[in-house]
Write a structure and sequence with these properties.
6 helices, 0% strand, globular, 69% helix, mainly alpha
Length: 96
């Protein structure tokens, strides 16, 4: 089923949460507490922030990216970039 534009933010959040779980598995970091330890984020604040990524601070996102290296397209989608912009960004990065 195609995604509609008015629900783009909801889908971006769901994609981000799914990517975090995927990367946790890839890095064998199965709990939020161990992910928080790996990223250097207080574990008591990470779970609420992952549940509602609007609460994530830029510093937290930097730490997560450094720790588990999620797909850049997922992060750009979370920040409001369109699929076309993300595709163009990925193409430009692959040409470098």
């Amino acid at each position: 089923m195609p995604r509609i534009h008015q629900n783009a933010e909801k889908y971006a959040v769901a994609d981000f949460q799914q990517e975090i779980r995927k990367q946790q598995g890839a890095h064998n970091v199965m709990s939020v507490r161990s992910l928080a330890d790996l990223a250097g984020i207080p574990h008591s604040t990470l779970y609420p922030k992952l549940s509602d990524p609007n609460k994530l601070l830029v510093s937290d996102v930097r730490k997560l990216v450094k720790a588990i290296q999620p797909d850049i397209g997922i992060l750009l989608g979370l920040m409001g970039y369109s699929k076309q912009d993300i595709k163009k960004f990925k193409e430009d990065k692959s040409n470098v």
